[in-house]
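Appendix B, record 7
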Amino acid sequence: MNVSVSNFISQVVGGGVVGGFLGSLVIRRLDTNSKRDLLDKEVKGALKLIDYELTICITTVSIFLEKKCKSKPGPIRDEAYRSVQKLLATELGNSDMMKLAAIYESLPVFKENMEDLYNTGKMVKSYIDSLDFFLTKLREGQKLVKTLTSL
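Structure tokens (predicted):
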């Protein structure tokens, strides 16, 4: 067996370069998967926060309507949504994000309607109808969030 030193060195170095390159690809793939898993967990955590926040809004509107607008309106909040809005905007599909955004953008209007109903003490049909509609939208939003969380 006649192996020259230069031939031996080129095979060792060449094998090391190829092996090192393949090893770096494996490590990069594992790192990318790890980052994706972490991001998925962050998105699911964000969706759970929104689910909780929507539950509070649904409960608040339901109680307000059950009490015939005679009880002071409870909290209608959007802090959880606002704190994760950027993450969800980059990770959710456009259609899903637009549905959530539409619900949260309408919160101030419905909160004001509840306060007006409470302050006047009158059952204004158009306001009551809008709150019923809003309650339906909140429930649809919560259903969407639960579906997205389970994916």
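Remarks on this record: The chain has four helices and no strands. The CA atoms of residues 88 and 95 lie 12 Å apart.
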